[in-house]
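Structure in, sequence out. Go:
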């Protein structure tokens, strides 16, 4: 139908009178007795925690909303014209194809709004909503995202140190948040096992031999589902384990509960205080009748505590396995000073740690940590990454791929040249600190971002750390009377200056990915397998093989760890012929790299 014909027909049509009730000042937002009959005649959806809600249309007949929300309502055709009748208090009328006119009952819509408000007020209270959400999926609050259980679902604020908990077997030699979360933690561990093929293969191959029989391993690492798989593997190989956390924010409470239920002595929970941190380490070490003979450390805090409080323990300790750059630095300092009492294995600088965990893990987890905490969009953001080691390389690659403008600071000319040839601009931090949107530290050093830089940052700048230690950002300098701290999310603080400027500080300057998000399980399988082999090597080494010094894992072991992960990708290695092996001067079965290769 042409527009001219439709206009002519409309001119001949008289509007039909549609009964309407005059609105009173209180009618739009109140439900008087004479209005209730109209409202209550409409279908309602009643939701309870015990029944499935009936899918009734939310939008009522008089509500001009999209038709797909109201399947029982006939909406005007696309060709219908809308007009206003000045005699009907500005009510809107629809002229249909057949010439009839219908007015949208505005009164009914407004009364329905009042009813919707009333129905909203009838919804369950906070306790009721909690019960409903937990009945749907308790694990969604208790164990979501592994390390990223942003807040514990328990309302009990009692310190775990003040609780008396026992597992189902009556054992109470542990201190965790809530033993009742063990079932959820077990599910997390089972999921992690599927992505840790090398550890599972090692567990299967060496379980009969028990190469760690008699080993008493005291550990201080991140307590996550991946660490749990490592601990259970060590136990399957014959070791006894006692464990504490190396980071106050990275513990998965549900995993700690599962380990405690399984008989492991675990002393850790998410959100420990500094005092709690050292108390847990002490409880882990100081047990009458139990003497550790192996140390597995991440950051050097456990080694430092034993050296400071219980130096005589080193008489029976066979070796230390350390996986972080901070901890390795401490070990080299002890060795240089002649104070290192036992052999130590530097896992951090093994190829399987440097080239995989540090690079690929951080390449994926940096984005995850920033997204979960800030919901920031990376495209077009200016980011400065302090340090271009393997961690820095991973962070820069991820941010560049998301469209960020990335600057790099570096002290090492070799790493600096790599950054330049990878397309990043090398700068000093003070040259860009006023303009960048995100500052990321990953140097392993201290005081990389000091108060001077924090004062000069732009409003809303995000500041975080991807190094192990919390010393890279001078957080202590921000705890002054003139600055206001505002907690906006778990692990997210706004630090506000007197003029209103604020920065967004993540995890109080601690390790971002394990404090605020998760890390890829598969790449941690590589590191965990390397740690397990290092423990086996040091524990079984004949006396005199390793002196009181810091050693790198033999390349043959690095290559073995890598080979255990290749079947996951259905990968097939090429084998050297005898002639090729002779030409290169190599054994056909490796090692293929010299010991100094990193």
């Amino acid at each position: 139908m042409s527009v001219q014909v439709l206009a002519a027909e409309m001119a001949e049509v008289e509007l039909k009178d549609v009964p309407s009730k005059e609105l009173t000042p209180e009618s739009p937002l109140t439900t008087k007795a004479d209005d209730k009959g109209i409202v209550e005649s409409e279908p309602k959806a009643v939701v309870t925690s015990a029944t499935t809600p009936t899918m009734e249309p939310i939008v009522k007949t008089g509500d001009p909303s999209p038709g797909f929300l109201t399947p029982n309502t006939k909406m005007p055709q696309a060709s219908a014209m809308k007009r206003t009748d000045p005699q009907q208090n500005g009510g809107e009328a629809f002229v249909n194809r057949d010439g009839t006119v219908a007015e949208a009952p505005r009164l009914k819509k407004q009364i329905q709004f009042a009813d919707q408000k009333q129905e909203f007020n009838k919804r369950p209270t906070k306790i009721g909503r909690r019960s409903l959400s937990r009945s749907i999926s308790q694990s969604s609050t208790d164990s979501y995202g592994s390390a990223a259980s942003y807040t514990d679902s328990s309302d009990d604020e009692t310190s775990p140190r003040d609780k008396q908990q026992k597992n189902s077997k009556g054992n109470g030699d542990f201190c965790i948040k809530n033993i009742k979360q063990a079932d959820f933690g077990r599910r997390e561990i089972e999921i992690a096992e599927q992505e840790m093929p090398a550890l599972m293969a090692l567990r299967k191959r060496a379980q009969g031999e028990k190469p760690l029989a008699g080993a008493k391993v005291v550990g201080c690492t991140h307590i996550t589902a991946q660490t749990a798989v490592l601990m259970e593997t060590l136990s399957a190989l014959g070791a006894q384990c006692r464990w504490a956390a190396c980071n106050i924010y990275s513990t998965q409470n549900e995993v700690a509960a599962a380990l405690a239920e399984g008989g492991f002595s675990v002393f850790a929970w998410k959100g420990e205080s500094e005092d709690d941190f050292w108390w847990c380490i002490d409880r882990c070490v100081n047990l009458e009748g139990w003497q550790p003979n192996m140390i597995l450390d991440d950051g050097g805090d456990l080694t430092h505590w034993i050296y400071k409080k219980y130096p005589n323990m080193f008489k029976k300790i066979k070796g230390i396995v350390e996986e972080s750059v901070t901890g390795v630095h401490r070990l080299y300092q002890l060795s240089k000073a002649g104070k290192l009492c036992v052999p130590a294995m530097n896992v951090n600088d093994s190829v399987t740690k440097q080239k995989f965990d540090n690079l690929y893990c951080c390449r994926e987890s940096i984005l995850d940590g920033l997204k979960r905490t800030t919901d920031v969009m990376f495209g077009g953001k200016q980011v400065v990454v302090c340090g271009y080691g393997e961690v820095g390389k991973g962070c820069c690659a991820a941010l560049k791929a998301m469209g960020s403008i990335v600057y790099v600071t570096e002290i090492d000319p070799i790493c600096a040249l790599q950054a330049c040839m990878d397309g990043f601009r090398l700068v000093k931090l003070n040259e860009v600190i006023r303009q960048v949107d995100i500052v990321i530290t990953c140097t392993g050093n201290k005081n990389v971002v000091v108060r001077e830089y924090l004062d000069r940052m732009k409003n809303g700048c995000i500041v975080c750390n991807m190094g192990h230690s919390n010393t890279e950002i001078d957080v202590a300098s921000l705890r002054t009377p003139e600055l206001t701290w505002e907690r906006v999310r778990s692990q997210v603080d706004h630090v506000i200056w007197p003029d209103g400027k604020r920065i967004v500080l993540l995890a109080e300057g601690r390790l971002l990915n394990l404090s605020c998000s998760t890390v890829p399980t598969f790449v941690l399988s590589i590191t965990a397998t390397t740690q397990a082999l290092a423990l086996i090597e040091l524990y079984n080494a004949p006396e005199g093989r390793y002196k009181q010094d810091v050693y790198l894992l033999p390349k043959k072991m690095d290559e073995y760890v890598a080979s255990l992960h290749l079947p996951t990708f259905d990968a097939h290695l090429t084998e050297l012929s005898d002639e090729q092996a002779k030409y290169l001067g190599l054994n056909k079965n490796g090692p293929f790299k010299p010991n100094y290769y990193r």
